[in-house]
From TrEMBL:
Keywords: Cobalt, Hydrolase, Metal-binding, Zinc. InterPro entries: ArgE/DapE (IPR010182), Bact_exopeptidase_dim_dom (IPR036264), Peptidase_M20 (IPR002933), Peptidase_M20_dimer (IPR011650), Peptidase_M20A (IPR050072), YodQ-like (IPR033687). Signal peptide: none annotated. Its cofactor is Co(2+); Zn(2+). SUPFAM superfamilies: Bacterial exopeptidase dimerisation domain (SSF55031), Zn-dependent exopeptidases (SSF53187). It comes from the Bacteria. NCBIfam families: DapE-ArgE (TIGR01910), PRK06837.1 (NF005306). It holds the Pfam family M20_dimer. This is Acetylornithine deacetylase. Belongs to the peptidase M20A family. PANTHER family: ACETYLORNITHINE DEACETYLASE, PEPTIDASE M20 DIMERISATION DOMAIN-CONTAINING PROTEIN. Transmembrane segments: none annotated. One of its GO terms (molecular function) is hydrolase activity.
């Protein structure tokens, strides 16, 4: 039986080699779609057609229902519409009684903005290959991993292998800002015995990640022409006070006792001011300044309590300024309302991933702790589905000239194939 399984895996790995040029072309294709927030439909339509026509999967393309998911644990509040922005699920149903464990393979196709494009040496949507690298926005995070999971399944199908349990390929939206795409798929009934997400942390198993919230601060000043600046209040300058307060908050939260999973990380909790807008004329004193920030926190902490803490911290800082004490800043939260996650290394999904990784690479699996968030929180925390991340390697994620290492994509495709065969079982 061991020899038979080995022969089947070898057959699938050979098929991955045969399909490698197709996989690279597929990655180049999906990398050409500028699938930023609100612009995911064209790529999702392409993937849905690919699932149906190329892979003969039962395919569902649906738009998240905000009224439904807004009542669920893990929902993140949004200020935009989901109209015309689908999630795609392709199902490969097992042909007979279930003899293995079902599996979700999930990748997000939303990407962050490539701006400022002037800093790039390559077209962000050009999927340019130079040596072993492919350059473009979202190719590392995480269209390369999405390609790997799709072609792992495609290779198994084309090798004529029948699995013992269902496989669900999911491409979701909004991992970069809410995770509501993953939540909507789960709420629609797409659940399984395990889930793998090929986030680009390299060929390691993710065992912990921080929680994340987004905060918006609106500071009101007293506008005027610059010649009366001595009688005006500059909202940008007043915003500095609160931005500096967030810097002090960052020091404070990192000075507190660490969560055990993050004990070896020097600076696990990041606070980042990512957006600021104020003024519309150099000779005017701006009457309003709005800035937005991302704040990390540990697993087992309640996002709402962190929001309350951040708001209290900023309001306390505002009291130290004569103007802000009287004209209180408006503090609101939107986007990420994401809990942190810490997983037990004894989970069965880690054992299966260890075996698959050792089989395809000859090396022992290493674990990874992330100071950002991923969609694994939904599966582990709210639906009892063990889930982790394992993916390709690259560089400049969310920066100019983002790239992915192509040999690592092939290696991940092979590990995913070995994992699927073991987890789902092989029907004789």
């Amino acid at each position: 039986m061991i020899t038979q399984k080995s022969d089947i895996l070898e057959k699938v790995l050979n098929k991955i080699e045969e399909l490698w040029d197709d996989e690279v072309a597929f990655l180049q294709k999906i990398g050409s779609y500028p699938s930023t927030l609100g612009n995911e439909a064209a790529l999702q339509n392409f993937i849905a057609s690919y699932f149906t026509e190329e892979m003969q999967l039962q395919t569902d393309k649906f738009v998240p229902d905000v009224k439904r998911i807004s009542r669920l644990p893990g929902y993140s509040p949004v200020e935009w519409s989901y109209a015309g922005r689908p999630v795609v699920v392709g199902q490969w149903k097992t042909n007979g009684p279930k003899i293995g464990k079902s599996l979700i393979l999930q990748g997000h196709i939303d990407v962050v903005s490539p701006e400022p494009v002037s800093l790039w040496n390559y077209n962000p949507w050009g999927s340019t290959i130079v040596g072993d690298r492919m350059y473009g926005r979202g190719l590392q995070d995480m269209k390369s991993g999405t390609s790997a999971m799709i072609f792992a399944v495609k290779a198994i199908k084309e090798a004529g292998i029948e699995l013992g349990a269902d496989v669900l390929l999911q491409t979701v939206i909004e991992e970069e800002c809410t995770g509501n795409g993953a939540l909507a798929a789960l709420d629609r009934g797409y659940v399984a015995d395990g889930a793998l997400i090929p986030e680009p942390f390299g060929p390691t198993a993710l065992k912990a990640q921080v929680g994340v919230i987004w905060v918006r601060v609106r500071v009101t000043g007293l506008g005027a022409h610059v010649e009366r600046a001595d009688r005006a209040v500059n909202a940008i300058e007043k915003a500095y006070i609160l931005i500096n307060a967030l810097g002090e908050y960052r020091k404070y939260i990192n000075s507190r006792p660490k969560h055990p999973a993050f004990k070896d990380i020097n600076h696990p909790l990041n606070v980042n001011v990512g957006k600021i807008h104020a003024g519309d004329w150099p000779s005017n004193v701006p009457a309003e300044c709005v800035f937005e920030a991302r704040i990390g926190f540990y697993p087992d902490q309640d996002p709402q309590q962190i929001k309350d803490e951040v708001k209290a911290w900023l309001l306390e800082a505002a009291k130290e300024d004569e103007w802000l004490h009287e004209v209180e800043p408006e503090i609101t939260f939107y986007g990420f309302h994401a809990e942190g996650v810490s997983l037990d290394e004894d989970m069965e999904i880690f054992d299966a991933l260890k075996n698959a990784h050792k089989t395809t690479t000859g090396e022992e699996l290493q674990y990874f702790v992330s100071t950002c968030t991923t969609d694994i929180r939904f599966y582990n925390l709210y639906y009892g589905i063990p889930a982790t991340c394992y993916g390709p390697v690259g560089g400049s994620m969310h920066g100019a000239d983002e790239w992915v290492n192509l040999p690592s994509v092939k290696a991940v495709t092979k590990t995913y194939a070995a994992f699927i065969l073991d987890w789902c079982g092989i029907r004789n």
